[in-house]
């Protein structure tokens, strides 16, 4: 956000980056300039060796070289509080607020069956569904400058799960991800479970600081998915060492988590649905007014999961 605001207001910047050699300095600095629409004449990049101590070295470099320090939220008896107490640098406390420690984890969704929509389609598994969630970063192909600009100019978080679904419908593409995939092969994931049966898998993942899924998704009729190249995942104790081109549709059973319960299907690469007729598709969202909007805007049958 600071990079974005400095760029927006054409402010000179010194930017500390994790870089171990000149090639990485050039690569990282060029990417930051491009992502934040920076004027190269107004920025200076300061490389610090990229190792386990990078964050602490970065912080102390900035603290020791700043002309003015503007604390916002400082933890009691923490490193920054100690530094500020002993610093000779000018400190401006105008924007400082009390530090509040989070007392509890974020909560999961709670779905009470009394509020379920009675439409039978949400209980059937006629479709393969790709479920989405709120994005804590920019959408595929979007610059970080535009991501932060949208946050600044919106009254609600603009990358919530509903808006992420709308972005998929706008681009007519579900972009693949290599995250958690075998051999880091980029894939799009689907599930063969019905919407109602998949609800109990929508959980807060503390490790990744995000929801696994949220009640917003797009479905493709099972009658046409096989010819589109969507393959059913093969679950196994250990992913075989076979051909690289085959590893993407294998998945380990899991030790802490039983991955078989997801009934996963995968498509390798980015999944474009621009040529799929609307009658072979369906959208799922949380509330009735969202379903009305999607049907009117995109002419795709849409079912809301909950009446309230």
Structure notes:
With 308 residues, this protein is α/β, with parallel strands linked by helices. It folds into 2 domains: 2-65, no CATH class; 113-304, no CATH class. The protein has helices at residues 2-8, 22-35, 54-65, 79-86, 144-152, 161-171, 195-198, 222-225, 288-298, and strands at residues 13-18, 43-48, 68-69, 90-91, 127-131, 173-174, 187-191, 204-205, 210-211, 217-221, 231-232, 234-236, 250-252, 264-268, 271-272, 281-285, 302-304. It has a 4-stranded mixed sheet. A 3-stranded antiparallel sheet has the order 7-14-11, with no helix packed on it. The longest helix is centred in the N-terminal third of the chain and has 14 residues, at 22-35.
Q: How far apart are the first and last residues' alpha carbons, in Å?
A: 35 Å
Helix content: 25-40%
What structural category characterises the helix and strand content? alpha/beta
Q: What characteristic shape results from the CA principal axes? A: globular
Summary keywords:
308 residues, alpha/beta, four-stranded mixed beta sheet, 17 strands, 26% helix, globular
